[in-house]
Amino acid sequence: MLRYITKRLIFSIPIVLGVTLIAFLILYLTPGDPVTNLLGSRATPEARAELSEKLGLDQPVLVQYGRWLGNVLHGDLGTSILTKQPVSEAIGSRLSYTLKLTLTAFLSSVLIGIPVGIFAAAKQNTAADHISMGIAMFFYSMPDFWFGLMLILVFSLTLQWLPVSGAYGPKYLILPALALGLPKIGSIARLMRAETLEVMREEYSLTARAKGISEWLIMFKHVLRNAAIPVMVMLFLALPWLISGAVVIETIFAWPGMGQLMYQAILRKDFPVIQALLLIIAILTVLFNLLGDVVAGLLDPRIRVK
Amino acid sequence: MKRLKILSLLLVLVIALTACAPEAAPAADTAPDTSEEAPVAAAEESASAEETAPTRTKLVIADMFTPEILDNQQSFMGYALSHGLIGQPLLRYDGDTGVFVPDFVESFSISEDGKTMTLKLPAGYKYSNGDVLDAQALVDTINRYVSISPYSYDYDGMESVTAIDETTVEIVNAIGFNVMNPTFMGSFGAAWNVAVAEAVGDEAFASNPVGSGLYSIKTEWAPGQDLELVRNDNYLTNNPLVENKGPAYMEEVLVRFIADGQTRANELEAGSVDIVYGLPASAISGMESNPDIQVFKVTFPGQISISMNTTKAPFDDMAVRKAVAMAVNRDQLEVALNGSVSAEHAYVNPSMIAYTSEAQEYAKELYPNDTEAAKALLAEAGWEDTDGDGIVEKDGEAFTVVFLVDSGSVPQTDAGPVIQAQLKEIGIDVQIEQHDRGYIREAMNAGDYEIGLYGYIWVDPDILTYRFSEGMSPSQFAPAELGEMLDVAREVPDPEDRVAAYLDVQKYLLDNVPMIPLMSENLYVGARSWVKGITILSPDQLVLNDVTIIEE
C-alpha cells in the first residue's frame, strides 16, 4: 500500500504542475490587461507601462511562470497586487472562516443525509420513504442562495432570532451553514439510499436474511460497509472544494472566507492570489483523490491494490 | 467493520477540530455592539442645549465598497467612506456654491496668475497618533504621493512644494490647480503620516495607515476584515459645511464591508446597522415608506456614455452618430434600471465641478428622443430598410454592430438590452458582447471596436482631457481644435470662467457627438431614524462630524 501511495504521489507532481501551467496560460490569454483594470479611466499609457513593469507583467508569459514557480518552490506564494499583502497571509486569514463554514455545512449534511438515506432504503416504498425522499429532493432542487434569502427573511427579519450577516461568533454561523448544507443533504441522502438498496439486493445480504439474522444487524454489519464506499469516495472528492469556499453564500452572509477572496481576485485580475488558490485546490484534489482510493481499498479488500 | 469505525471517528475528529479552530481576524471577535452606553463628553460639550443627549457612542456602518488597502496614497481606488474617515482632506467642494472651502487647512489662496497656492495650516496640529502635522509634514506627504501613488500624474505640472514656515505651504504648479484640487478634496490628497510609513514600511502602512481624519484605526486591520475605528481626539476641522469642528460625537465606528446590496438593506431593516452607504435601488421604494429609515440620494460624478469608434464605418459618419443620439430614450433607461441611474444629456453632470444646466438644455434641443428623425438621418447617410426585415442596409450590408458592455458594471449590463431595443426601432441590429473592463478599455483605446458603453467616475471636467486626447480616447476623437479648448479650460483659475470654458467644450462635443452622454449612477445612503446629523458632501462623501444617535 505504501508503495502504491508513493507511486501515486510521484505521478501527481506533473499533474499539479500541468494544472498550474494551464491555469497560468489561461489567465494570461484571457482578454483584458490587469493593469488597465486596476488603474482608473484617467491612466495615461505611461502610467500603465510603469505599473506593468513594476508588477513584472511586461515579461514574456513563460518567464513570469518560471519566476512564479521558482518562488513557490521556495515557499513564497507571492504578494497580492491589490492588497500588497503576502498571498499566504491573505489565504491564512480567511481559511479558518471558510473551514468553519464549509465543514459545519459538510458535517451537518453528512450526519443528516446518511441516516436519512439509510432510513429511506430500509423503509422502501412506504410513506416514510416517500416523505423523506421528497424532502431530500426539495433540498436538492433548491439553490443555496435561495435558502440563504429565505432563512434571512424568516429567522433574521421576521423572528429576529439570528443575525442577518457577519462573522462575530457561533450564532452568525448558523444561517450560512444551513443554507450551504441543506442542498447537500438531498444529494447525500439520495446516493446513500440508492447504494443501500443495491447492496441489500446482493446475494450475501439475501444469504444473511435466509440465515434468520435480524434486519438491523444485516444493515449495520453487511450493507452499510459496502454501501458507504461510493458515498465516502464522493465525500473525499468534495473536500478540496470546501477550501475554495462558497462564493454566493459568503457574499449573501458577508462571511469573510476564501470564496470572497477568490471572487475579488478573479474580478480584479489579482493573478498571484488566483494562482495560489488554484495551486492549493489542485494539490488538495490530487491528495483527496488518492485518499478516497485508499479508503475505498481499506473498506473493500476486493478493490485493494496489490 | 473496525476499520470503518476508526475511519469514521477520524473523519469526525478532523472535522470537529477544524471547525473549532480559533478565529484569525480580531474584528470577528467583537460583535457589532449597539448596547446603550453613557453619552460621550465631547458630544455633551459640543451639542447644542436643545439637543437630546446621544444614547449610544458606537456607530455601525455597512459599506458597499471593500477597500483593498487603507493608505490612499498607495491605493488604486479611492473609497469615500473607509479612506475618508481616516484621512482628512485639505479642502472640500461646496456643490451648492461651486467653490472649494477649507477642511484640514485653515485657509488657502491662489495667486492672481493661478499658478501659486498658499496653504495656511492650523498651528500645533497633530496626526491621530500625536505626531506633529506641520508644514514640513504636509510637504513630505505631497512628495510621497508623487513618488508612490499610481495616480501621481494628478500633480502634473507641480514645480515645487515648499514649507515657508511651520504653518505655511506654498505650491507652484505651471498648469494651475484645477487638476490638483480634486485630489486635495478627497483622501487621496489627505495628509498621511510619512514618518510612520517610513518607520513601518509601505507594506505595513498600506493596511494600517495613520492620518488626521475624524477617526483612526482601533484594531489592526487586514484586507477582507471589517474596520474598527476610534475617535481621533486630535481632530479639528475648518470645514464650514459641518457644525461640529471638533472631534466626532461618536466614540467608535465599526465599518462592515458587505458586498451584497440586499444584505445591506436587510441589515438596515433589522436595525443591526445604523447607516448603509450604498442601498440597492430595488430596496428604496420599501424603505421610503418605513418611518424608521431615512434615505438620502446623491449622484456620482461622471457618467456612462455610448462610445462610438469615429474612425471606422459606420460610426465615422456623423449623421449615423446623431441618429443613435436621437434614438436613445433616457427616461426608459431610468425606469428600466429601477432608479439606480439618472439621465444625463451633456458631458459634465450636476455632481461635477463646472456643471451648467445650459449644456443639458443644448443637448436636449439638439438631440430630442425622436425615432422618425433618427430614421431620416440614417436614410440621409444611405441606410435604409430595403428588404423589410426591420434592419437598415447600405450597399447590401445590414447595419449590424457589436456593442461592448462591461460585465462588471450592473448599470451597463442592465442598460445593454434596453439600448439594443431602442436602436432596433431605427433599424440598427445590436449584438451585445459582455467583456471585462480591462478588455473593453484596451479595445476602445486601440480603436478596435464599433460601439459600446464607457463609464467613469471623476469629479472634475478635466476628465474630458483624457477622454478626448490621442491614444486615450475611446471614440478615437481627438481633434487639435478640441485639444486646445481643453488645455485652456483646465487652466482657467476663475470658477465662473471655467464653467463657460467647459460649456464651449461640451457644445463642441455635442455638435460632433463622438460619445453620447447617457446616465449617471446614483448612490443611496440609508440610515435608521435614530441617526441624527448626517451630512453628505459633494460629490459622495458621507461626513460623520455632526452624527449622533438618539434612540427613543
What's the short story on this structure?
The complex is a heterodimer of chains A (306) and B (552). Chain A is an all-alpha fold and 306 residues long.
In words, what does this structure look like?
The complex is a heterodimer of chains A (306) and B (552). Chain A is mostly helical. Chain A has two domains: 2-73, no CATH class; 91-305, MetI-like fold (Orthogonal Bundle). Helix content of chain A is 76%, strand content 0%. Chain A is built from 13 helices and no strands. Chain A has helices at 2-29, 34-38, 45-54, 61-73, 87-122, 127-141, 144-158, 171-200, 203-210, 215-243, 247-252, 258-267, 271-299. In chain A, α1 packs antiparallel against α13 and α12 packs across α13. The termini of chain A are close together. The mean pLDDT of chain A is 86. Chain B is of the alpha+beta class and 552 residues long. Chain B folds into two domains: 5-298 and 524-549, 3-Layer(aba) Sandwich (D-Maltodextrin-Binding Protein, domain 2), CATH 3.40.190.10; 303-521, Dipeptide-binding Protein, Domain 3 (Dipeptide-binding Protein, domain 3, Roll). Chain B contains 18 helices and 24 strands. In chain B, strands 1, 8, 9, 10, 11, 12, 13, 14, 17, 18, 19 and 20 form a twelve-stranded mixed sheet that branches. In chain B, strands 4-5-7-6 form a four-stranded antiparallel sheet, with helices on one face. Chain B has a two-stranded antiparallel ribbon with strand order 2-3. In chain B, α10 packs antiparallel against α13 (371-380). The longest helix of chain B is centred in the first third of the chain and has 18 residues, at 2-19. Chain B is globular, with a radius of gyration of 26 Å. At the A-B interface, α2, α3, α5, α7 and α10 of A face α1, α7, α8, α15 and α16 of B.
